[in-house]
Amino acid sequence: MTVHERDVVIVGGGPAGLTAAHRLAAAGLSVTVVDEQAELGGQYFRRPAPEVARVWGDHRPEGGRLVGAVRAAGVECRTGHLVWGVGDDGRTLLVCDPAERPVRLRGRYLIIATGAHERPFPFPGWQLPGVTTPGFAQHLAAADHTPIGERVVLAGSGPFLLPVACSLLDLGVTVAGIAEAGRPYRPSTRALGTVRHPARLRELAGYAARLARARVPLWQNTVVVRADGGDRITSVTLAAATAPTRPVRTVQVDALCVGYGFRPQTDLARMLGCAVRTDPATGDATPELDDSGRSSRDDVYVIGEAAGIGGAPVAEVRGLAAALDILGREGHEPRAGEARGLAAAGRRLAHFKRLTDALYPAPAELARLLPSALPDAATLCRCEAVSAGEVRGIARTAGRDVNAAKAWTRAGMGPCQGRECGFAVTAVTRASPADGLPAGVFPSRLPVRPVPVATLLEMAGEGEPA
Question: Could you tell me which residues are beta bridge partners of residue 116?
């Protein structure tokens, strides 16, 4: 059983992982980046298909430059490689390559940059064709130049809805409206804090002007309560977020994109034994880290969105901070002014993050409001076809234990491992802490992603328990 040894192994080839890889390799360390996608870049720097790039160009050319710099620095880039578990030694990463062969990687330092996934919340009809997330619509629009539909409503919460709407408008899509669960765009003293961030303010003003020219309505304090249709969604019903049981309007559409922000992917970090805490504003499991991203395990760093949602600029700062900390431990002298500039950028971005967090409703508040509009008959877990009523029934008899609800109903046991339904199961059960884990957190289980049987069989043939 061959184990490939490196100075640093980085899981995730997005902005954070690539930034760390480039700085570490430039200093002479042996670095491997592992990513399950066919190309580096992550969701933010996702590379367009060659035929799309030839016609429409690269929607984020800075991502292409970063990927090129990483490869030029000598980083080993294992794309199409799925990290699905951790060996019994607690250090060796179990990986499946594109040919479904097992690969084992071990680094003196591990950097977990696994990113985030979107935060959906179910409603009657959310399994209809044409219902998706804003991130998927953005990927199709920006990277593939493909519209999600002809007449679309965007819903959920967060500033991400605005650039998605503009991307759809650029493709000629009719954006019938944006339903924002909070009230972030009304005048307030909190909003005045944006003047300290003129670049972000200009970006927001650009989105607002584009939406105004297209006469896209922006409904604040509004959430989706149901979708209707047959072979495809045909209409969406909206209600006030503060009174979700009373519908206020129905809109005709052929596509609906709903997402309440993002959740950090911490399953691999937790499997490695990194301590986590409950973020009081989101209810998410967030790793306990120092300023450099070093976890409770001295050899494991967690960076980027996996360390907490902050956006691509924050992810890059976190990636560089982890790289500088590792280099310092290895006896490398920092470049002149590098650490000072990084600290200043970190403070500036942290202030902006606190501002946006204050403007938009906290996921914990949404978890309190949204379940009241979810009928018992609605599907909560799509993988296992579990209804909201089944989960509520277990919550009444087994207490507010999300893992008891999972064990009795199988909610969260499907291929997505709770990434789609976990937030909703937590909200419906009104979960409390259990088994030493933060409230509402499913335990991290092997495998963290579905793994081909052929990979396990080959491991067994090599004499390793699968």
Answer: 264
Q: How large is the greatest C-alpha to C-alpha distance in the chain, in angstroms?
A: 65
Q: Is the Cβ–Cβ distance between 67 and 47 less than 8 Å?
A: yes
CB 14 within 8 A of CB 315: yes
pLDDT in tens, 97-143: 999 999 999 999 999 999 999 999 999 999 999 999 999 999 999 87
Is beta strand 93-96 parallel, antiparallel or unpaired with respect to 82-86?
antiparallel
d(CA 261, CA 273): 26
| pLDDT tens by residue, 11-44 | 999 999 999 999 999 999 999 999 999 999 998 8
Structure tokens at 160: 């991400």
Give the DSSP letter string of 306-325: GGS---HHHHHHHHHHHHHH
Q: Are strands 31-35 and 102-112 parallel, antiparallel or unpaired?
A: unpaired
> Are residues 259 and 274 in contact, defined by beta-carbon separation less than 8 angstroms?
no
Dist CA 256 CA 128 (whole Å): 10
Q: Is the pLDDT of residue 185 over 60?
A: yes
CA distance 343 to 302: 18
**Amino acid identity, position 18:** L
pLDDT tens-place string over residues 385-419: 999 999 998 888 877 778 888 888 999 888 888 88
Strand blocks (E) in 230-280 = 233-240, 243-252, 255-259, 262-264, 276-278
Task: Please provide residue 28's backbone torsions phi and psi, each rounded to the nearest 5 degrees.
Answer: 100, 5
Query: Residue 266 has which token pair?
Result: 């911490």
Say what the pTM is. Answer: 0.91
Question: Mean pLDDT, to the nearest integer, of 162-167?
Answer: 95
